[in-house]
Amino acid sequence: MVNVLLASPKNPRSFWTFDETLMIAGKKSGFPPAGLLTVAGMLPERYNLKLVDENVEELKDEHFRWADVVLTSSMIIHWKSLERIISRANQFEKPVLAGGPLSTQYHHEIRGNATYFLGEAEAGSIDVILEDIVKRGYRPETRVIDKRKRFENMTKVPLQRFDLIKDNLKYYIAMAIQTTRGCPESCTFCNIPSLYGKITRVKEASNVVKELQLLHNYGWRGGVMIVDDNLVGNQKEIIPILHEIKDWQKENKYPFNFITQASLRMYENPELMEAMYQAGFSSVFFGLESPSQESLKFMGAQKNLQGKNERGKTSMLEKIRDIQANYFQAYAGFILGFDTDPDNIAKLMKAFIQDARISVAMVGPLGVLPDTPDYERYKREKRLVEGVRYGGDSGIFSRELSYVPMKNGERIDPNVVLDRHREVVGYINSPGAYFERTLEYIKNRNRKPLKKMVIGNEKLMSFLRSVYYQGVKSDYKGEYWNFLWNVVKNDISSFPEAVGYAAQGHHLITTTNESLKVDDVNTSLEKMLGRMGELSGDAMMTSLEKMLGRIGELSGDAVMRSKLYLEDIIKKYKNIREDFRNQVKSSYRKLIENSPSY
Ligand code: SF4
């Protein structure tokens, strides 16, 4: 038997990872690695499989020793942890097969010896490739197997091997399944149409139901994330699948509630929305992108500009309100930094998110990714910034852009965009704004999700943790209790859900708060280094030396000012929660940590 170690890389802390919510919920990760579990389903019995998800358990040396080959799959946010996995496998002289979007797009920049598989796993005979890799053994080289743009029918996608994680299900917030791949839209910043095709391919309904049944058999109850990039890319074919899911849910007394991502096009089709509602969907993530019509046009997001239904709502705000009132809770993503953004884009975005009552709104500056129309556009215009890589939003508050922003044909300072980003996120994730719009959403619902939340021991413990961290320890306890009290006054049956929304808020509020402090320290450090640059060469060196080793002995006006400035930075640095401090640039951190007053 060949031992295959399926290693799933660790997620870096970000707005998306909901670390603080996981802590309240008593969980370790959002979802299991659906990609690796699917690839595992392609491997015949002669392979002995072990899956280690670094988000829920430690990847130990003994795992590498045991393995004949390491198989891994990663997204762009996993860059560092993928390199760590490869480096460890290399040390143990175990061959690595690395796939997923990160390897597909950036294989030439990833450090370490591995075979990189580009494209969808179904396009290559993974078992044959693996056999060949094992036969060749470890070699200090990189190889590439390129199967990009081969979009196989989804009937070829095997069932996920949930048995490999059956003992760890309890560590996840939700399970993950996929029903479609590809997207027919043409958003210029997005790589999905290029990576997975412009024609939405749909899984067989029977296979979708089989995966649900498997999860049910392993005892899973609760959330299931449908990880499609756009569930409604093929509306005609998805509706029958939704009906099958509905029947299965009914038969099994609604064990699952579904969450997914979809374009606002769904609003054109009330039959589709009703089928989703009846199947047990509770939340949908929409790429709303921008409140500016000009910017939506600029980025090709026609999905948000077109379409209406018999309810007659045409504006993005009205559609979202209608969907929230009658079908599902809306999460949404927004992007800043387009050439067409009006000067008051931050103000417009804050107002839109608040008016649309979107609790969880993810806002980021534009990131220019390879394999997108934007990449070609910015490259053509010589506006790509060399050496700056889009990190898939894991940087929390970026300090640099991967492209040169422009306004009215003139290049503008990237800080204009970065400051707008901080302004919007700082506002929407302030406790007052977060709880206000979440309460408005709850108050304005005509229908609630079909699956009722059952209060078991786990939920009760989450509530107690929420009370402790949010209602007792936090510095926003007033807003927290006010929110819960208003929910009780309005409709007590929404209380369990409200506790969940509050826990999500805890992550957004805390992450924003700490990240703004990190950002403040980084800004101060950059300014300080800027000021040092104004000193003569000798004075600068002396000043640096003294700051590093002998702060107490400094003298002279310029140096004294630097000393006070540094002391202030150190004070701010110490005020950042420890687990966020690694976001202060590492060289600066060394400077601070070596100083005597730290
Ligand atoms: S709708 Fe979503 S998945 Fe499709 S191209 Fe636009 S951003 Fe990408």
Task: Record the SSE blueprint.
Layout: E1 2-8, H1 19-25, H2 34-40, E2 47-53, H3 61-66, E3 69-73, H4 79-91, E4 96-99, H5 101-106, E5 115-119, H6 126-136, E6 143-147, E7 174-177, E8 180-181, H7 192-196, E9 201-202, H8 205-217, E10 222-226, H9 235-251, E11 256-262, H10 270-279, E12 281-289, H11 293-298, H12 316-326, E13 329-336, H13 345-355, E14 361-365, H14 373-380, E15 406-407, E16 410-411, H15 414-428, H16 431-443, H17 457-473, H18 477-490, H19 495-534, H20 537-549, H21 557-574, H22 586-593
Parallel strand pairs: 1-2, 1-3, 3-4, 4-5, 5-6, 7-10, 10-11, 11-12, 12-13, 13-14
Antiparallel strand pairs: 8-9, 15-16
Helix pairs in contact: 1-19, 8-9, 9-10, 13-15, 16-18, 16-19, 17-18, 17-19, 18-19, 19-21
Bound molecules: iron/sulfur cluster.
Residues 183, 185, 187, 190, 192-193, 229-230, 263, 287, 303 line the site of iron/sulfur cluster.
Give an overview of the whole structure:
This protein is α/β, with parallel strands linked by helices and 598 residues long. The chain contains 22 helices and 16 strands. The protein has helices at 19-25, 34-40, 61-66, 79-91, 101-106, 126-136, 192-196, 205-217, 235-251, 270-279, 293-298, 316-326, 345-355, 373-380, 414-428, 431-443, 457-473, 477-490, 495-534, 537-549, 557-574, 586-593; strands at 2-8, 47-53, 69-73, 96-99, 115-119, 143-147, 174-177, 180-181, 201-202, 222-226, 256-262, 281-289, 329-336, 361-365, 406-407, 410-411. The protein is globular and about 70 Å long. The model has no long low-confidence stretch (mean pLDDT 90). The structure holds iron/sulfur cluster.
